[in-house]
C-alpha cells in the first residue's frame, strides 16, 4: 500500500518530540567512549604495543606481526568491554558513503563451545567481497581482487555493537579503489613539501599536517512525508513541487526558532558524535526553513574526513529515532537554498604553528605570506582541477545555478591582504637593499595582524575564501566525501610548495640572501596569480563577463567539468605528487561519469513515473469533477446564465487538458530520448547525452505538474507539498 499524503500528514502531525533521558551525562564523561583513542589504548595495551601504534601514527612506521596480534587482542578486549559482538573493516568506496562487512568475534570450538577471536592478521588486512564496488575498470584490467588494510592513523570506533576499523581499499596490484588512499598519499606529499618550506623559517619543524574543519548542511523532513514522496526516496530530491507561498523571503530570524523535535534530534546527534569522539557544535540558523548545519572543531584532515563520512551515517540513524529523514542532497527543494559542505583548510606544524595564520613579527608573517601566496598560486594554476573534483549531479544545482557559489573558481582574500599583496608586487626584482628590506618588513609584512582584525567584509559568494587563519573551500557539495577535494587541494599545494622551494633555492645558489630569494619568488607569484583573485559579487553577470576576459573557466555541468580531471595538467599534478597514477585517475573519471549518468537516468525514470502515475490521473480525476459540475450547471441553469458562469470553469478544464497533454507528450519524448542515449557506449558521451538531451525535459514536465498542483483540488493531491515538508510546526 502506498502511503497517501493525508495518512502521512496525519502521522507527521501527531509526532511528539522524543524525550531526553532524565539524567544526562556530562560531555566530558561520554566524550570518545566509543573510540579506541589514546586513553583506551593505554588502558588496554602493553607499553610496547602502545608505542608501536603511536609510532605508526606519528612516523608512519610499520607494525610487525607479533605486535599486530597484541594490538588486535587489546582492541578486541576493549570492544567487547563496550558490548561489541562484531568487527568490520570500514572503508570509503568510490561511490556512496561508506562500506563495511561484519564478522563476529565469536568462533565455535571443536568441543561445542565458542571463543572470541580477533588476530593481528584480521586487523591488518582483509579481503572483502568487493566485486560490487565500483572500480572503473581497474580490477578487470589488473587483478581480480582487492583488499582492505588498517589505517592506524584514524581511531577504530564502535557503532551498532560493531568494532569499526578504518581501512584503505586497494587492488592487489596496489591501485587505490577508495577515496582514502589518494588522500593519505596527498597528505604525505604535502607534509614533505610543506615541512621543507617551513624549515626556511624554523629548522625545528619536522612534520606538517593538513587540517580540515567541515561544515555540514542538511535538511530534516518528517519520515512519513518522506515515505510519501517517491522522488525523495529514490533520488534524494524533490523532482516536483510548487514552491510555497512563504519561502525564505522572511528574514533569518523567522527561522531562528527551531521546532522542538528538531532540537531534540540535534541534541541526540551531538551526544552520539561526542561518544564517537567527533568534536561537533551544531548550528541552527541556516538560510532555508528546515535546514540546519553541523560543524566540528577542525582536526587532522584524514581523521576529519573519516568523521564526516561517519557522521553522515550517524545522522541517518539518529534521525530514525526521531522520525525524521536527513536530506543530504545539494538541492532537495527547487527554489529553496541548497546545501553545501564548506571545507575549512589549513596547514599546521608539529611545533604548534598554523602556517596560514598571520602573526606578530615580520619574520613569522613572511612565513604566513609564503604559505598564503603559494596557496593562491596553486589555486590559480589548478582552478580547473578544483572545479572538477566538486562536480556531481547534485552540485550542478548549486554551482552556476544562481546559488552560492558560482561555477567559476576564484579566491577572495579581503581588502587588507589585497593591499599587502599590491605592495609586495611593487618590490624591485633582484637583491633588495637593506633599507628596502627594513621598509617592507616593517611597513608591509609587519602590519598584517592589526589589519586582519578589522577584516569584516567577508565575502559569502566566493568559492574559495581566506577567512583569517584558513582557507575555506565553499563549493563542495553537501553529499560529497571530503576526501576528494582534500586530496586535490593538498596535492596541488604539495606540488606548488616544491616548485617554490626549487626557485628559492636556485636564487640562493646564485648568491641571494634567503629573505631576498623568498621575496623575489613571492613577488613573481603575486603577479602570476592575480587573475584568480576576485573580491566582488560572485553572483553578478558582470563577474561572468569579467571572468571570461580573464580566461577563467565557467563550466556548469558535471560531465564537462570532469574533463578537467583527466587533462594533461591534472595528470601531471597527481602523478608528480604520487597521489594517483594514470590508471587510477582514469578509473575515477569513468566512475564519476557513470555515477552522473545513472543518477540522471534514475531521476528521469522517477519523474516519468510520478508525472504519469500520480499527477496525470489526479488531474484527470479533478477535471472530471469540473466536467460533472459544468454538466450540472447546464442542466439547472438557463443558457444565458450558464454561458456566463461556466466560462471560467471551461477555461480551467481546457488549461488542465493542456498541462496533461504536455506531461504525456514530453514524457514520451523523454523516454525516446533515453532509449537513444542508452545506445551510447562511451561513458563520457553517455553522460553528456544525459546532461544535454534528458535534463531539459525535467523542467518542462515539472512546470506542467507544478501548475497542476495549483489548479487541482488540494484534497486530491497525492504528494506532500513543499509547505508541508518544509515547515514542521513548533
Ligand atoms: P563560518 O563563519 O563559515 O560558519 P567558522 O569560522 O565558524 O565558519 O568555522 C568554520 C570551521 O573552520 C570550523 O569547523 C572550525 O573548526 C574550522 N577551522 C578553524 N580553524 C581552522 C584551521 N586552522 N584549519 C582548518 N579548519 C579550521
Ligand atoms: Mg563556512
Q: Would you write up a description of this structure?
A:
52% of the residues lie in helices and 11% in strands. By secondary structure, it is an alpha+beta fold. It has three domains: 31-178, Glutamine synthetase, N-terminal domain (Ubiquitin-like (UB roll), Roll); 187-241 and 250-580, Creatine Kinase, Chain A, domain 2 (2-Layer Sandwich), CATH 3.30.590.10; 595-727, Four Helix Bundle (Hemerythrin (Met), subunit A), CATH 1.20.120.1560. The strands form three sheets. Strands 9, 10, 11, 12, 13, 14, 15, 16 and 17 form a nine-stranded mixed β-sheet that branches. Strands 1, 2, 5, 6, 7 and 8 form a six-stranded mixed β-sheet that branches. Strands 3-4 form a two-stranded antiparallel sheet.
SSE order and pairing:
Blueprint: H1 5-13, H2 27-30, H3 38-44, H4 47-59, H5 65-81, E1 86-90, E2 102-104, E3 106-108, E4 114-116, H6 120-124, E5 125-126, H7 138-141, E6 146-150, E7 157-159, E8 162-171, H8 180-198, E9 208-222, H9 223-227, H10 230-235, H11 252-256, H12 260-275, E10 280-283, E11 291-296, E12 299-300, H13 301-321, E13 324-327, E14 341-349, H14 362-381, H15 383-389, E15 411-412, H16 415-425, H17 434-443, H18 448-453, E16 464-466, E17 471-473, H19 483-509, H20 514-528, H21 541-550, H22 558-561, H23 563-566, H24 568-576, H25 582-636, H26 639-677, H27 683-711, H28 722-726
Parallel strand pairs: 1-8, 15-16
Antiparallel strand pairs: 1-2, 3-4, 5-6, 6-8, 7-8, 9-11, 9-12, 9-13, 9-14, 10-11, 14-17, 16-17
Helix pairs in contact: 4-5, 8-19, 12-13, 14-19, 14-20, 16-20, 19-20, 25-26, 25-27, 26-27
Amino acid at each position: 500500500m502506498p502511503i497517501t499524503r493525508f495518512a502521512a500528514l496525519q502521522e507527521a502531525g501527531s509526532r511528539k518530540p522524543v524525550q531526553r533521558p532524565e539524567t544526562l551525562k556530562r560531555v566530558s564523561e561520554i566524550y570518545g567512549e566509543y573510540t579506541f583513542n589514546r586513553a583506551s589504548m593505554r588502558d588496554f595495551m602493553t607499553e610496547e604495543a602502545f608505542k608501536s601504534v603511536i609510532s605508526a601514527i606519528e612516523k608512519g612506521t610499520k607494525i610487525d606481526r607479533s605486535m599486530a596480534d597484541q594490538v588486535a587482542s587489546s582492541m578486541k578486549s576493549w570492544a567487547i568491554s563496550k558490548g561489541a559482538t562484531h568487527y568490520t573493516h570500514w572503508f570509503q568506496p568510490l561511490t556512496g558513503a561508506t562500506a563495511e562487512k561484519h564478522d563476529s568475534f565469536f568462533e565455535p570450538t571443536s568441543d561445542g563451545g565458542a571463543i572470541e577471536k580477533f588476530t593481528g592478521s584480521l586487523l591488518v588486512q582483509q579481503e572483502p567481497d568487493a566485486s560490487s564496488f565500483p572500480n572503473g575498470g581497474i580490477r578487470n584490467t589488473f587483478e581480480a581482487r582487492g583488499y582492505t588494510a588498517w589505517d592506524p592513523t584514524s581511531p577504530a570506533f564502535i557503532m551498532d555493537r560493531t568494532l569499526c576499523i578504518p581501512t584503505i581499499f586497494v587492488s592487489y596490484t596496489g591501485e587505490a579503489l577508495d577515496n582514502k588512499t589518494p588522500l593519505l598519499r596527498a597528505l604525505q606529499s604535502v607534509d614533505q613539501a610543506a615541512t621543507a618550506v617551513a624549515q626556511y623559517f624554523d629548522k625545528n619543524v619536522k612534520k606538517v599536517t593538513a587540517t580540515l574543519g567541515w561544515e555540514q548542511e542538511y535538511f530534516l523532513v518528517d519520515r512519513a512525508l518522506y515515505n510519501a514522496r517517491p522522488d525523495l526516496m529514490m533520488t534524494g530530491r524533490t523532482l516536483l513541487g510548487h514552491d510555497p507561498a512563504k519561502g525564505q523571503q522572511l528574514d533569518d530570524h523567522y527561522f531562528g526558532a527551531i521546532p522542538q523535535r528538531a532540537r531534540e534530534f540535534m541534541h541526540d546527534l551531538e551526544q552520539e558524535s561526542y561518544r564517537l569522539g567527533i568534536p561537533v557544535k551544531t548550528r541552527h540558523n541556516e538560510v532555508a526553513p528546515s535546514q540546519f548545519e553541523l560543524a566540528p572543531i577542525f582536526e587532522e584532515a584524514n581523521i576529519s574526513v573519516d568523521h564526516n563520512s561517519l557522521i553522515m551515517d550517524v545522522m541517518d540513524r539518529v534521525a530514525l529515532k526521531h522520525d525524521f529523514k536527513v536530506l543530504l542532497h545539494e538541492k532537495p527543494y527547487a527554489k529553496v537554498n541548497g546545501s553545501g559542505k564548506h571545507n575549512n583548510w589549513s596547514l599546521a606544524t608539529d611545533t604548534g604553528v598554523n602556517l596560514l595564520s598571520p602573526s606578530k613579527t615580520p619574520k613569522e608573517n613572511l612565513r604566513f605570506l609564503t604559505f598564503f601566496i603559494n596557496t593562491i598560486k596553486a589555486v590559480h594554476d589548478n582552478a580547473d582541477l578544483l572545479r572538477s573534483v566538486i562536480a556531481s549531479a547534485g552540485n550542478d544545482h548549486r554551482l552556476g545555478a544562481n546559488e552560492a557559489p558560482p561555477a567559476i573558481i576564484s579566491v577572495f582574500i579581503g581588502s587588507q591582504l589585497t593591499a599587502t599583496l599590491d605592495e609586495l608586487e611593487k618590490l624591485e626584482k633582484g637583491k633588495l637593499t637593506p633599507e628596502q628590506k627594513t621598509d617592507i618588513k616593517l611597513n608591509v609584512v609587519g602590519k598584517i595582524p592589526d589589519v586582519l582584525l578589522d577584516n569584516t567584509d567577508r565575502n559569502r559568494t566566493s568559492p574559495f575564501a581566506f577567512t583569517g587563519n584558513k582557507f575555506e573551500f565553499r563549493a563542495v557539495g553537501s553529499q560529497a566525501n571530503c576526501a576528494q577535494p582534500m586530496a586535490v587541494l593538498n596535492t596541488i599545494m604539495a606540488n606548488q610548495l616544491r616548485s617554490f622551494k626549487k626557485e628559492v633555492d636556485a636564487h640562493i645558489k646564485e648568491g641571494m640572501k634567503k629573505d631576498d630569494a623568498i621575496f623575489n619568488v613571492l613577488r613573481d607569484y603575486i603577479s602570476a596569480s592575480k587573475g584568480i583573485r576576485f573580491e566582488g559579487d560572485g553572483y553578478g553577470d558582470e563577474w561572468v563577463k569579467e571572468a571570461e576576459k580573464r580566461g577563467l573557466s565557467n563550466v556548469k555541468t558535471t560531465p564537462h567539468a570532469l574533463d578537467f580531471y583527466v587533462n594533461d595538467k591534472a595528470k601531471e599534478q597527481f602523478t608528480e605528487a604520487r597521489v594517483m597514477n594514470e590508471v587510477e585517475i582514469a578509473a575515477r573519471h569513468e566512475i564519476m561519469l557513470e555515477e552522473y549518468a545513472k543518477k540522471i537516468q534514475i531521476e528521469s525514470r522517477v519523474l516519468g513515473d510520478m508525472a504519469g502515475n500520480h499527477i496525470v490521473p489526479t488531474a484527470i480525476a479533478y477535471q472530471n469533477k469540473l466536467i460533472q459540475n459544468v454538466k450540472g450547471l447546464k442542466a439547472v441553469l438557463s443558457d444565458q446564465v450558464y454561458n456566463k458562469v461556466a466560462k471560467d470553469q471551461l477555461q480551467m478544464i481546457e488549461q488542465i487538458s493542456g498541462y496533461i497533454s504536455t506531461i504525456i507528450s514530453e514524457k514520451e519524448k523523454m523516454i525516446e530520448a533515453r532509449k537513444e542515449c542508452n545506445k551510447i557506449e562511451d561513458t563520457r558521451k553517455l553522460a553528456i547525452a544525459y546532461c544535454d538531451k534528458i535534463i531539459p525535459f525535467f523542467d518542462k514536465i515539472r512546470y506542467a505538474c507544478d501548475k497542476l498542483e495549483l489548479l487541482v483540488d488540494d484534497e486530491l493531491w497525492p504528494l506532500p507539498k513543499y509547505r508541508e515538508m518544509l515547515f514542521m510546526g513548533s
